[in-house]
Write a structure and sequence with these properties.
By secondary structure, the chain is of the alpha/beta class. It folds into two domains: 309 residues, 3-Layer(bba) Sandwich (FAD/NAD(P)-binding domain); 108 residues, Succinate dehydrogenase/fumarate reductase flavoprotein, catalytic domain (Flavocytochrome C3, Chain A, domain 1), CATH 3.90.700.10. The protein has eleven helices and 21 strands. The strands form six sheets. The protein has a five-stranded parallel beta sheet, with helices on one face. Strand 10 and strand 11 form a beta hairpin. Helix 1 packs parallel to helix 10. The radius of gyration is 22 Å and the shape is globular. The N and C termini lie far apart (49 Å).
């Protein structure tokens, strides 16, 4: 393997949503050389980019204890209390310092000096900061723009991590077998040249996102295949709570293209769920009605679909939402119009869709996994914050907080002696007679997997 195919850095980050990008930003600020591997050609490949609703902060009559209680209630009290404490203690500070002060994210305001806080399901207060209905897109673009300007951050777009490098498994040195296992980077596929490159680093952060795309209906981009979980598991990291898959209650029902999310904040502004006959039904399932936690709303919708033998239910925006719909939800409005639905006049046909994995690579409050040298942040990680079900708009906040914490912990405990020479790592094995794989067969296999997961490992 040529030297051009070996890349060394102080820190390797795999993925660049809000968690990976925040980690890169903090690591660069601490003086580390950082390589960032990004599967797509831009920020749109991450779940962060598609997050519509917003990010949790604190409203005017809010308090950390109230947020703590809401998170625990939504997670069915299976949450890790220590992790929830970290989130509510550090969350607002991270939002203020990184998003508002440094990146100048133009969050919606009711006046020049007053932020607009939205309400979403499961929250006892209005506390969601948002940029209309394109919060994640705005944050992603700002983070990527910032990273591109930093000289010690190197972004590798169109590169897909294939496997984590670990010792002793990938080492040529037999003496490594007498040392504890450790992650030292990753084998990475250059999507354009189809060659595998060795990215070597004494510390690695997994920030690969979730696995929603293994389900037939999902709000996630098709790149969310759970590769980070698989790589972590093969490397020996502990994986937990993978049975806790959250299904978002409201995705646009249509027969063309990928599923499109209808943000929780639409119901926060008053929209009501109805049967196809026009009857509201959430009052039959929860005292919180349409603003119950996501798992409760999803099960209610599914039950109504079964009871009425229907493929969808309706979300009535026009008759209930009092704010300017086109101004508050421009992205949702435009997308629905593409499918012939005017949400200022018509109800939206919606179905649940796989949305978020509450489990993942088990990490502590600093993002450390059970495998030395490997950290995980964002949806690929299981901090325990979400328990069995995530509270709305906490995912961006978790990524922001743990991305910064992981990078800080690495920089404060950085030990260059843990690095290895790239030549010590076995080169990637290329078969002499590479077999051509029919893309049609792969497409069909994925269709089978997604259908199986939806029908047998889905909502019920």
């Amino acid at each position: 393997m040529s030297k051009e195919e070996e890349l060394y850095s102080d820190l390797l980050i795999i993925g660049c949503g809000v968690a990976g990008a925040t980690a890169a930003l903090e690591a660069a600020r601490q003086g580390l050389e950082v390589n960032v591997v990004i599967k797509s050609s831009g920020p749109e490949g991450s779940n962060t980019y598609w997050a519509q609703g917003g990010i949790v902060s604190f409203g005017e009559d809010d308090h950390p204890e109230l947020l703590y209680e809401d998170i625990m209630r939504a997670g069915d009290s299976i949450n890790n209390p220590e992790a929830v404490e970290v989130l509510v203690r550090e969350g607002k500070k991270a939002v203020d310092e990184i998003l508002i002060e440094e990146l100048k994210i133009p969050f919606a305001r009711t006046s020049p000096d007053k932020l607009d806080y939205a309400l979403e399901g499961g929250h006892s207060r209005r506390r969601i900061l948002h940029v209309a209905d394109a919060t994640g897109q705005t944050i992603s673009k700002a983070l990527h723009g910032k990273l591109k300007k930093l000289p010690n951050i190197h972004l590798f777009f169109d590169h897909t991590a294939v496997d984590l490098l670990t010792i002793p498994h990938h080492s040529r040195n037999p003496l490594r077998y007498y040392q504890p296992p450790r992650c030292l980077g990753a084998y990475v596929l250059d999507n354009n040249t189809r060659q595998i490159r060795k990215f070597v680093a004494p510390y690695t952060i997994l920030a690969t996102g979730g696995c929603g795309a293994v389900f037939q209906f999902t709000s996630n981009p098709r790149t969310a295949l759970g590769s980070g979980y698989a790589m972590g598991l093969r490397a020996g990291a502990r994986i937990v709570n993978m049975e806790y898959i959250q299904f978002h209650p409201t995705a646009l029902y249509h027969r063309e293209g990928d599923t499109f999310l209808i943000s929780e904040s639409v119901r926060g502004e008053g929209a009501r769920l109805k049967t196809r006959e026009g009857q509201t039904f959430m009052e039959n399932y929860s005292p919180l009605k349409d603003l119950a936690p996501r798992d409760e709303v999803t099960r209610a919708i599914y039950q109504e679909m079964v009871n009425t033998n229907s493929e969808f239910v309706l979300l009535d925006v026009a008759n209930y939402v009092k704010v300017n719909i086109k101004k508050r939800f421009p992205y949702i409005y435009r997308t629905c119009r593409k499918y012939g639905i005017d949400i200022t006049r018509q109800s939206i046909p919606v179905v649940p869709a796989a949305h978020f994995c509450c489990g993942g690579v088990l990490v502590d409050t600093w993002g450390r996994s059970s495998l030395s040298g490997l950290y995980a942040v964002g949806e690929v990680a299981c901090t325990g914050v979400h328990g069995a079900n995530r509270l709305a708009s906490t995912s961006l906040l978790e990524g922001l907080v743990w991305g910064r914490r992981a990078a800080k912990h690495i920089s404060e405990n950085y030990d260059p002696g843990l690095a290895c020479n790239p030549d010590e790592i076995h080169p990637w094995y290329y078969p002499a007679d590479g077999e051509e794989i029919d893309p049609a067969l792969i497409h069909q296999d994925w269709a089978t997997i997604r259908s199986t997961m939806w029908n047998y490992a889905g909502i019920v």
